[in-house]
Design goal:
- Helix 1 packs antiparallel against helix 2.
- The chain is mostly helical and 62 residues long.
- The two termini are 20 Å apart.
- The chain has a domain of 43 residues.
- 2% of the residues are buried.
- It contains two helices and no strands.
């Protein structure tokens, strides 16, 4: 079992990297709203995938 704070730290780093990539990409293309929409969509997908993963992990093994 890994302590939960390391997982949250890792998630924060990953999200921060994606946000930075989106900012740089959007800034270079001059399309700030486009990357923002994509980032929000990515966050939603990641959130739901994480919830599903937690549900699957917490179920007892047969």
């Amino acid at each position: 079992m890994m302590p939960s704070f390391t997982k949250h730290t890792r998630d924060a780093i990953v999200i921060g990297l994606f946000l930075l990539l989106g900012v740089v990409n959007g800034w270079l293309k001059g399309d700030m709203m486009g990357w923002l929409t994509r980032f929000v969509a990515f966050l939603m997908i990641a959130f739901f995938a994480n919830m599903l993963w937690q549900k699957m992990k917490s179920q007892p093994k047969p």
